[in-house]
Specification:
Radius of gyration: 12 Å
Largest sheet: none
Strand content: under 5%
Distance between the termini: 33 Å
Number of helices: 3
Order of helices and strands: HHH
Length: 85
């Protein structure tokens, strides 16, 4: 499955605890990654700088749903369900 153009739900909804280029402390949930360009595409996609978390998150019908909004809801629920207590 390919990513939906102008979506970036997976670069906004989840938190990332590892350092990212331009975000050395990681990224809180719900905050857009600094590596998103104006077209909501990842500037580090396919580079060695891309964090393992990002490379491991692959698009799927379940995660992406039928729209960007559905993807944001699904990923936000996953973030909440897996948040450390």
């Amino acid at each position: 499955m390919n990513c939906r153009p102008h979506c970036a739900a997976c670069c906004i909804a989840p938190s990332i605890t590892s350092p990212l280029p331009g975000m050395p402390q990681g990224k809180p949930a719900g905050v857009p990654c600094i590596q998103l360009d104006d077209d909501l595409r990842c500037k580090t996609f396919g580079t060695a700088e891309r964090p393992p978390f990002c490379a491991g998150l692959q698009p799927s019908a379940e995660m992406c749903g039928e729209s960007r909004e559905q993807a944001l809801v699904w990923l936000t629920k996953l973030e909440q369900a897996t948040k450390p207590v």
